Amino acid sequence: MGETEIRAEVFQRVRKVVAEVLKIGEDRITLESRYTEDLHLDSFDNLSLLMALEDEFDRSIEDEGAQQLATVGETVDFILRQADRAVNAGAAPPAPSTTLAS
Amino acid sequence: MKRRVAVTGLGVVSSIGHGAGDFWRACLAGNTRVEAIPPAWLDYAQFTSRLWSPLAEPDYEIWGLGRIERLQNDATALIAMTAAFQALEAAGITREMKDEKRGTFVLSGTGGVAPERAGISLGTGIGGITSALRSTLHQALTRPKESLRELRARLGDAGVLDLLETIERRLQAPSRANAFAVAMTMPNTATSALSIKLSLVGPQTTHCAACSSGTVAIGHGYRSIASGDMDLILAGGVEFLDDDYGAIFHSFDLARTLVRGDDPSRANRPFDRERSGFLFSQGGGAVLVLEELERARGRGAPILAEVAGFAETSDAHNIMVMEPEGRQIARVIAGALAEAGLRPDEVDYVNAHGTGTVANDETEAAVIGRIFGSRPLVNSTKSLLGHTLGASGALEAVVTVLSLQHQTTHACKNLEDPIADLNFVRQVDSHSIRVALSQSFAFGGHNAALVLKASPHTAAP
Predict the structure, then answer these.
(1) pLDDT (tens digit, 9 = 90+) per residue, A46-57?
(2) Which of residues 4 through 63 in chain A touch B, CB cutoff 8 A?
(3) Burial track B348-365 (b if 16+ CB lie within 10 A, e otherwise)
(4) Which of A7, A83, B90, B432 sits in a 20 to 30 Å window from B241, CA-based?
């Protein structure tokens, strides 16, 4: 799977999770969507989103950087970076992979 | 003046069926779910008791409880919400969406009950213990497991590697911390979740009285309506004890309270001379809709039964042993009947605590015999479900209401050689059941009894 397809798959899964947390249609969520200004996430939603992303990608996201993510696109990149780090550290890559729980 | 209190809806999550209809059919058929304890538990301890009653997870999705809510809530809260939704639906009260994102509702069809005059009264024995265990295990074991993995990577000896691999495998812990752990581990987690979910702004009270919790919660809910303080209460009990290590089970096993033997179909036998202890249940829950009778009638609600009396006493004797003469059990029964204005000879049915332990059944049977003789029907719902601790009183109150409504009740499973000359229910038959008692006794000496009676307005089944 090429880099573009991997990014597209991660975006799809992040979009599904954001829609689930906010109970909105996936079509309202783009890579450019800003959590605060466009999607109106509050602090409770933020916690819920992190928990749901951890569940979706079956991985801990305790990194402080996760708190700073402002857009959906930044979240996708963050998850891809985490996956790269895991591969480099010799652990099984958390995502993207269609074999992971979703 | 004391107001009359009606039961208008029932909700159940149990090992033998979810929903009052399936649950009742399973009770009358004598169904049970008894299995060998998980083999993995044997890696951690030796057990005297080898049987338990696991709880199949309800289909939360059909009640609108999706992944996000399941991540945010302890299982006791999910059980409470599922049982409450069932009970409200049965009572003809609808939930209207208030906030889709938060998944919260307001109730409509209550006959004009203001949300300030609607509350929640739930009992639980150990509250959010499953979430507390998971949170602690994640914290305690995650980094040591990483260190073990690292150590294993640096060593070469095959035997040592195997040993390390075994240790690592046995250190079971959730792979992720839960940001909602604080809320999920609170004893009041289920009560609070239900209050928020249904936008009920009257008092929400959590009753922790060990195995009497469910009965105590219903009793206090009844009183708050009878006194005029509240008009509608969701009352009941919940419990869920999930534990990869079997430690909670082991605590009860060490106290020598659990069933012996390996035969799942015969080991659990309350009030039988061959009884050996209680059957540990993984959990369950029940919620009853309680309403002031006249208002409930006015809105055309199904009147399933009336709660007519309640009492509580304390043994003040021993934290784990029932006072053998049963003096405070006798007093709690007398108190509940006095509040209902009824005599012992008017009681048609006693849903006993009936755990199946040698000492408790002996004491309880003797007290029932002394007060009621052998006239009223007696059964133990724990003979079917095992012991669901803080949920048991609520599940047994549901059985009592259904028995009043259907004029029949379930048999006392595996009762072949009774310990006393009481009118134990040995098979399902038609009876005249107008007045019934549901009683619970707990570790800590909490005794509680509810008097329920058929209402002249009782809906036909």
Answers:
(1) 999 999 999 999
(2) 20-23, 45, 47-48, 50-52, 54-55, 58-60, 62
(3) bbbbbbbbbbeebbbbbb
(4) B90
